[in-house]
Amino acid sequence: MPPYEPAESPEGHAPENELDLQRWLHLILEHRWWIIGITAGCIILAAVYSFLATPIYSATATVYVQSVSRQAVGSTNLVGPASWMEEEKFYNSQQEIIRSRPVMQEVVDRLGLQNHDCFRGAKDPARVLASMVKVEVARDSALFRITVTAPYKDDVAKWANAVAEAYAAQNLRSAMDYVEKANQEMQLKIRQMQEQYTRQQQQYSSALTKSDSYFPQNQKDILDKRIEALELKLGDVRVRENELSAQINQMEAWAASGGNPLSIPSVSQDLTVQDLSKQYNEGERELSRLLAKFTPQHPDVQKKQRELQSLKDRIASQAQIVLSSYRNQYQALRSEEANLNGELAGLKREGVNFMEGASASETMATSGTSLKKYIDLLYDKMRELDVAGNLLSNNIRIIERAEPPVAPVKPNLRMNLMLALLLGLMGSVGSLVAYQYLDTRIRSVEDIEQGLGQSLLTMIPTTTPESERSALESFQTLRTALIYASQDKVKNVILITSATPREGKSTVAVNLANILAAAGDRVLLMDCDLRRPSLHRKLKPTDHAKGLTQYMADRQARLEDYLVPKSPNLWVFYAGPIPPNPPELFSMKRFEELLSGARKDYDWVIVDSPPCLAITDAQILARHAGLVVLVAKYKSTPKPLLERTLISLQRIHAQVAGVVLNEVNTHSSYYYDYYYSNHYYYATGAEPKRLPWLLKGRGDWGGMFRHKKRERI
């Protein structure tokens, strides 16, 4: 016998690696109530959840954020980023500012939310409120949507409007604080200069009183011009010192608080910072594109985040460099002031020494004039700050206030039902598909012909009154297949076996013998299942009928005395009493002679045997048989066991004719209706010919087709 190999796909069936849509559609229709039940359960659970869940409401306030505030002509930029390159950074930071603790705490304090049911007992009401607030930036715009989501229909709109108002108020206060601090610094310098000017005026008056000397007019004018130039230069140096001092104080305040360095104009105007900020903005845009495609744990996303953090650290480092630069400039101005003071003192001494009798009062008058000019310059600067503060307007405007919601946003009944429908369909169909792939039972023609490499001889339907005609067609098909497989009855000893018990092999043997005898052939049906014989239960012989074991025990016995005729062409050889060692009986030469004589005297010898895997009886009988017919029960016989049976038969070189698929449910096997239920009509256009003696009457073998439940072996 050739090695066991899977057979190629028969014509008309989909290859194993292709999807058989018709089969899956039939499978879904077969298990439609499972799918409908699971889906209906999911929908019911979703409906119950939607009706019992606490409704969640949402309200949204829209604010417009202007990146640069309106200001007086000639004044410095007080609020907003320093240049267009910082706008994206500015808008991104505003989202965190809106949800920051100061804004949330102001809303809590303004509305008294610590006494609200939602916040009562909370250790940090501001954090609870922040968890309810969501900030979104409208695409390609400066509009921020502040959304508050909470299970309080009458409060969410009020809370959203309060957050927008608190954010606008805090932004305006921040700008006003900057103007106020600068104004205070100027006032302090003016008071110091006024005190110094008063002292100089007093000294000048005293000097005029005490001195009556005179020095040449030309020399005095020269010295006066030089001293005046030095005094003006010294005044400019001091003004620059004050400006640098204010900027240094602002930057040191930033360094102490850990704020955004780009909010300081002097830092944001630095070329290196601008270049780093541009790289940072480009990196954030690249990070947004990566997050649209990958999760935050993706290596590319994490790498880009590290690059952005590095750029942020470099910006902070550059800000420190700018601060150090300003400190160095301040120290240089202090040194220049000291040098100018020294040079001015030297000129004064030179004037005194050069012009004997020159009065120190003149020098004091010149110094007083310089101080007066410096004081006037500080007053001009302070007036500019006052004008800028008066004209300063908030760069936050509430465009659309939140309105009380009409309906809850959660739970969404329609969305939940749709999701439940999809989940139910996916779960039920998915479980059905998983079950089909994990189920190793024989369920289709492909399992036999492609999976096992054996031919399907026929499919026998489950016994019902409606399946009588289909059953008769199936056994006629089996008879035709055996005629071809036996080479026109040359191999006429047919062994009927199965992989496991209760597969229906005895029923198949009885009905096969009937159908062969009905065609006019001489048939001998032998019950060689000496473990659990069943032909006597099915065929109801007389009490005095003898069997195989009795024949083997009596060497003088004649075979004709042990055969029971059931029809003109059918004889039955029953098993007889159960022996202690059936394999020994089948190995006897007398049994081989029995089969040899039967092979010559009868056209067909049908041998019913025990299961092949359970015991060795069937394997011993297979050596004497011409063909072996395996019986597999539909949706019951495990394919691995049937495959193991084929391997065991292959080892003894038994010729397997094919597989009979028994107990096929015509409603669950989509192959059956086409091949058997309608085949006769398509071929002849008439009712199939019935054999009344086969299918009717008490004690006949075909009568079992009319039973609701086939007797199992």
> Which percent band covers the strand fraction?
5-15%
What is the annotated CATH architecture of the domain at 445-703? 3-Layer(aba) Sandwich
Shape: rod-shaped
Helix tally equals 24
Tell me the CATH superfamily of the domain at 445-703. P-loop containing nucleotide triphosphate hydrolases
Q: Which CATH C-level class of the domain at 445-703 is it?
A: Alpha Beta
Structural class: alpha/beta
CATH topology of the domain at 445-703: Rossmann fold
Q: What order do the strands of the largest sheet run in, or round the barrel if closed?
A: 5-12-11-6-10-7-9-8
Distance, first to last CA: 30 Å
Mean pLDDT: 78
The beta-strand count equals 12
Are there runs of 5+ residues with pLDDT below 50, and where? 1-17, 69-82, 674-713
Which sheet architecture does the biggest sheet show? 8 strands, mixed
Q: What helical percentage do the residues reach?
A: 55-70%
- What Rg is obtained from the alpha carbons, in whole angstroms? 53 Å
How are the SSEs placed, and which strands pair?
Layout: H1 21-30, H2 32-52, E1 57-65, H3 87-98, H4 101-111, H5 125-132, E2 133-137, E3 143-150, H6 156-210, H7 217-257, H8 265-268, H9 271-293, H10 299-354, H11 360-391, E4 396-400, H12 413-438, H13 445-449, E5 456-461, H14 468-485, E6 493-498, H15 505-518, E7 523-527, H16 535-539, H17 548-553, E8 564-567, E9 570-573, H18 582-586, H19 589-601, E10 604-608, H20 617-624, E11 627-633, H21 639-651, E12 656-664, H22 670-677, H23 679-684, H24 692-695
Parallel strand pairs: 5-12, 6-10, 6-11, 7-9, 7-10, 11-12
Antiparallel strand pairs: 1-3, 1-4, 2-3, 8-9
